[in-house]
Amino acid sequence: MATKTEDYLGITDYKVIGTRPIRHDGVDKVIGRAKYGADIDMAGMLHGAVVRSPHAHARIKSIDTSKAEALAGVKAVITVEDLPLQEDKIEDLGEGAANLQHLRANVLADGKVLYHGHAVAAVAATDIHTAQEAADLIDVEYEVLQPVLTVQEAMKEDAPLLLENQTTESLGEDTGQKSNVCTHFRHELGDVEKGFAEAELVIEREFDTATVHQGYIEPQNATALWSADDQITVWCSTQGAFTVREQTAQILDVPVSQVKVVPMEIGGGFGGKIRIYLEPLAAVLSKKTGRPVKMVMSRTEVLQATGPTAGSFIKCKMGVDKAGKIVAAYAYMAYESGGFPGSWAAPGAMCIFAPYNIPNVLIDGYEVLVNKPQTMAYRAPGATNAAFASETIIDEICEQLDVDPLEFRLKNSAREGTRRADGPVYPRIGNEECVKTALSSEHYATQLNGKNRGRGIASGFWFNVGLKSSAAASVNSDGTVSLVEGSTDIGGTRTSIAMQLAEVLGIRAEDVKPQVVDTDSIGDTDVTGGSRTTFATGWAAYQCALDIKEQLIERAAKLWEISTDDVVFDNGTFSSSDSSKTLSFKELAGMLDETGGPVMGRATVNPSGVGGAFAVMIADIEVDTETGKVEILRVSVIQDAGKAVYPSYVEGQMQGGIAQGIGWALNEEYAYNRDGLLTNASLLDYRMPTCLDLPMIETHIVEVPNPGHPYGVRGVGEVPIVPPAAAIANAIYDAVGVRMTNLPMSPGEVLKALWAKNGENGTA
Amino acid sequence: MNAFDYEAPQSVDEAISLLSAGNGNIGILAGGTDLIAQLKEGRKIDLMLDLKQIPEATALSFDEDSGLSIGAATSCSKIYSYDVVKNHYPALVDCTSLIGSIQIQNRGSVGGNFCNASPAADTPPAVIVLGGTCRIAGPNGTREVAAEDFFSGPGQSVLQSGEFLISIQVPTPAANSGAFFLRFIPRNEMDIAVANAAASVVLDSEKTTIQEARVAIGAVAPTPLLVADAGAALAGKAVDDEDAIEAACAASRAAARPISDMRGTIEQRIHLSGVLTRRAIQGAIQRAKES
Ligand SMILES: Cc1cc2nc3c(=O)[nH]c(=O)nc-3n(C[C@H](O)[C@H](O)[C@H](O)COP(=O)(O)OP(=O)(O)OC[C@H]3O[C@@H](n4cnc5c(N)ncnc54)[C@H](O)[C@@H]3O)c2cc1C
């Protein structure tokens, strides 16, 4: 579909957009009737369990499944041998691409295990306890290898190699050099050396950030039925049914049309539910047994074996001139990709200096194998790590120049026409408006008093994505519209999509019945990710509504025996141009049979015109200098939504992103011991914030319409997680004078930093 | 989880005979908040012995002479909702009301917390400073052990095979006394102590001098520790004697023998033993003054 980048309709007096109707899925979710993956139950269903590696890095010498197979109740056992061989080929899988051999070796280890918890074999049995017992009976003999746990270690020349054939691709060329470094890329703008030479003040620091988990509450799950006619149905909880279909078909080596994926309600994803883990195992176990096979991960399995997001090592350097303008910026960004290639330095590099207009920039990015699960997206993947570095440096610059951190950000703000180091020139963006809103907020105007208290500011950017979406809708005779679409509903997208259809047709949001359907029932739709769903699937719904509108105009014209040009449609009413005849949407909907039969609209889109999103956070904190614990006193987040289709959802996304960012900042980390074993694979010890750890998060929605969307929508889901780590680090500095350069800034780390500065008794 | 038998004896005697009957590996069940989690992680048992049908095990009673009696399987929420506990044993409210979450407190018991014998358990320090004792039933009758002597190592107590804990006895607090418990955790709930501490003090009638004091610390050694030197440093000292309080903190730091793990480092835990000891003492003095 042709979608120009100047599609904004310029409307502001919406009827539906910007309101807060009751969400369509609300009742089912509140009363517990909504069906999630783990709710699936079928006659004859078997339960699957996975055998996982107790080592971080080892060669598999042998697998003996005989004892498991002999156990009563066990119906099938599989290893990687049961998965078809794959070519060494990269496939696009939605938000991110993957090498098929790696995808196969990730779902079941192929000769080598690359992280603690790596799947080695799977079992199906009549009940889950028997399946687990059988899994324990599978003897795997390992030759344990030395694990590599940080990017710095992995990049050393003599580091043990995870994948023996991995070579470094540098600046787009295969170097042929065997290494754990999969990729090195570079973005260059202007002349960075010259820029630094001209700078009055240059600040440079190194940052380390831990591997972290997305924290979705619902564990990964999959139920599969491989029927006798080779039709495969998969029920699962995923951000993208079509990417699951694509991946599963590839791994099973069957045509995509043979796989139907039924997306269940999802209990959170945040980027972690795009890649497949259990789906092909359940499918192959089903093929072997002829029965449906259900697999649900335990929390420990989720933490050990699904993709967290990348830990990183970043060196960042920025220079300002006498006038307080940033003249040069450099970043060295090395991100963990886990056991297989594919990481998040690239998006991190797109974001690291994005809120600023900087003439000279150099960014070197590296994606590096380490013995951890293959990293996956997490809400603005890569950008939180990046902003932690750049926004801390900016804070230090402001401190040294003695300028207000928001005034500094305003002065150096990127705006329409600014070129980002990775290439794009910004269309109309809302960064300045966000900074100005922060400056004029009551929060910023209120002084923070008290010992060991501090305020920190940070900005963040996320580019958002477009990608493909489909929608189809049928007009019901009672004047409602049934809408089907393929985007997993996360954060209320059913409703925000339905509202965009309702706006065109002049009907209420409640008069649209939205449904998320399986892969046989709607056109291809990319993942709910990249903050794209309200933007792109909403656009499809908008187009779909235009299609319906055109058809209904034809029906009215037919009925009134006038030309379609003489039919006017406004605010839900069709009328003849001489105003002699009118019909409401509902009335006309009741007359479809007499005018030619049912009316259905359809649309597929793949829009460009994506609008990037900016956010600013103000964080007030207090440090307990005796324990190192940071208490969050007050937080505000200011974000450009373009147009908030459903303001409560936007506020919810802003608050959710900030909450997760606070967890990332303060306590969350995968704690690996020296042997590479994950020691905190539970939510008791993987410390996400609870509601007692968070203040009310104040939200300010800024609306600078995105010229690339008919309603001006920008994605909103991801950017709020970008500023928190930096804002809190800056607040800690303001409170107690220590610069925290590692994440998480846990009590122990803050205490260590305080001791380094003041001595243990606070007297040195 | 493997298959196992389940029994819910109605009396102490019945429980003892089930324990002695050679039923293989027995898992005694109080609230199950530790036990069931352990079974899910691979602990194997042949018999689950549920104590909650034994009246003594779920009782909660008070009498001026013998003090408070807490059935070993009495839930934390029942304990902290009990008026006597609220009014006379606030240190028990401190610890029972911060274990896990409300759901965990509705199931988990002080007895289970003791018998699980985690070095980081949150109820032992308070019970220790309150002078509590553990009443143990076994094939040869019952015996009593001071709370501080109940633990013998991580996951280990003085319970012999065939024995179980029936109740915990806590004496009636002296006049002009106060006790306080706190822990340090990175989050504000649902967390395991990096270190914890409790203190109790008995003041003179003027409430200016500490006559007697007890300090206990946890999560900093293989078992919860009664720090006798800390108590001794405070005895006979004025309530505002900063040097005495600092001496007590130093005694706690000296007594701590922690390990480093993902919850905290040795240095951090030793330091926190001192910080928490100070805060516990101050809290106990405050409560004694208000008593
Ligand atoms: C999410 C979560 C959070 C938690 N947070 C905390 C916390 O903040 N602080 C804390 O200290 N603990 C915490 N715990 C651990 C646990 O809840 C406590 O230790 C609780 O007090 C255990 O009591 P229970 O009645 O559930 O014990 P159970 O699980 O029933 O028993 C614990 C152990 O003691 C044995 N046992 C129980 N009763 C007896 C008896 N009378 N005689 C002999 N053996 C017996 C059992 O066989 C088992 O081995 C947490 C646990 C969870 C799951």
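The first helix of chain B runs from residue 12 to 20.
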